[in-house]
Amino acid sequence: MHIHILGICGTFMGSLAVLAKELGHRVTGSDANVYPPMSTQLEAQGIQLTQGYEPSQLEPAPDLVVIGNALSRGNPAVEYVLNKGLPYVSGPQWLADHVLQGRWVLAAAGTHGKTTTSSMLAWVLEHAGMSPGFLIGGVPQNFGISARLGGTPFFVVEADEYDSAFFDKRSKFVHYRPRTAILNNLEYDHADIFPDLEAIERQFHHLVRTIPGEGLVIHPTTEQAIERVLGMGCWSSVQTTGEGGDWQARLLSEDGSRFEVVFQGEVQGIVDWELTGQHNVANALATLAAARHVGVVPALGAEALSAFKSVKRRMEKVAEIDGVTIYDDFAHHPTAIATTLDGLRKRVGDTPIIAVIEPRSNSMKLGAHRDGLAESVALADQAIWYAPDSLGWDLAATVAGSPVPTTVCDSLEAIIAKVKADATPGTQVVIMSNGGFGGLHGKLAEALR
C-alpha cells in the first residue's frame, strides 16, 4: 500500500512514517518545513520527502493519505484530498487501527516530560529483554530512532493531549486505549485549541475512561489538576509517586543525578545516571511504576535507568568550544524552562549559565504563557530572548521585570554576537526552542570557533 503523510516532519507523524515503512508500506510525505532531527531520520529510512503542499504530490493517487494535525482547511493538499475523494485518516486513528490493536499499550501523558518518560520506559523494557514497540515524539539516544514495531505485545507511546486532526478534535491519546497510563502533570497549554485548563482536564478524563479496570494509573501526589481528573471517575488501580506516594526517591546528590528508589517503604535500588533535575527524578519513579506493572522488578529498572542516555534535544550537549558548552533543549513552557535550568544549576554550581529562548510554540505565539516567562529564567545568569517581527506581542515588555540580565534580539546574528561577547571558558549556553531555531546551534558553534 502507498501511504502519503501530510505534515510528515512533525515528531509524531515522522514516527508514524517509520512504523508504516516497517509494516511494509511504501511511504512518502510532505511538510512545509523539512528539518532535523525528523528529516534526517526519515531520509535514512529511505522515505521520500517533498517540501510544501502542492497537489501534484498526490498524483498518482496514494492508497491512503494520513493528515497531520498541523494541517487545516485551505491547505492546497487537503483541499485536493477532499475534492478528489481520496481516502484519508488522522495519524492517531491510523496508529490505533494498524499498530496498537491487541497490544499492551503503556502511555505517558502530561504537560511536561512525555517524551523523556516514554523514552525511559521503552529503554527499561528493552533492558529487561522485553523488546517493546514504541512511538516517541523525539529520538531516544539509547535507540537512535523514534519508533519501531517491537517483537512483543508491549508498546510504549507518548500520549499527547493535542488534537488529532482538523476533522477530529479529540485529543490524540483518546485513540490509544492504554492498559498502563502515566499522568505526569497537568498545566494549561495548547492555547490555540483549549480555552482553559478545565477543557484539558476533560480530555484527560476521556483518557482515564478508556483504561481497563485491570489497568493502572500512575500520577504524582502533588498535581491538583490530576486529582480533579480522577475525581470525575477512575475505574482502574492507582499508584502515586513523590512525597507521601507509593513510589519515592531519596536524593543521594542534590542535582538528582543519584538517588534511591523506595516503593511502599522498601528500598528497591539506586539510580546513578547522566540526567539532572527533580523533574527527571519524578519521571523515573513513574517509569519504574509502569515497568513493574508489566513485570519488570524495580531493581532491574533502576539498573536500566542508570544506563539511560536521554533524548535528542532534551539538554543534549551539541558542542563544546574553548570551554563553552552548548546544549539543545526542547523547553518551551515556563515550568519546563525553570525545571531544566534548576537541574543544570544544581549540576554546575556557580558556573555562568546563558539561557537563549525562542517563544515558538502555538501557545507562546498567542502569549498564553507570558505571565511566567520573566521568572522562568531566574536560575540562569542571563537570558537572551528571540523576538522576530512575526511574534505578535511585546516580548521585551513581558521579560522587562526578569530577575536576571535580559536581552531581546530580533535576529540570530544579534543572539550570536551577544553570546560571543559574554561567554567565557566554562559558560553553559542552553538554547531552548521546540523548533529548529534557524540552525542557531550550529551557527553559534561555528562563530565561537
Structural account:
With 449 residues, this protein is an alpha/beta fold. Helix content is 33%, strand content 24%. The chain folds into three domains: 2-90, Rossmann fold (3-Layer(aba) Sandwich); 102-305, Mur-like, catalytic domain (UDP-N-acetylmuramoyl-L-alanine:D-glutamate ligase); 316-448, Protein-Tyrosine Phosphatase, Chain A. Strands 8-7-9-6-12-13-14 form a seven-stranded mixed β-sheet, with helices on both faces. Strands 18-19-23-20-21-22 form a six-stranded mixed β-sheet, sandwiched between helices. It has a five-stranded parallel β-sheet with strand order 3-2-1-4-5, with helices on both faces. Helix 6 packs across helix 7 (224-231) and helix 14 (412-422) crosses helix 15 (440-448). The chain is globular and about 60 Å long.
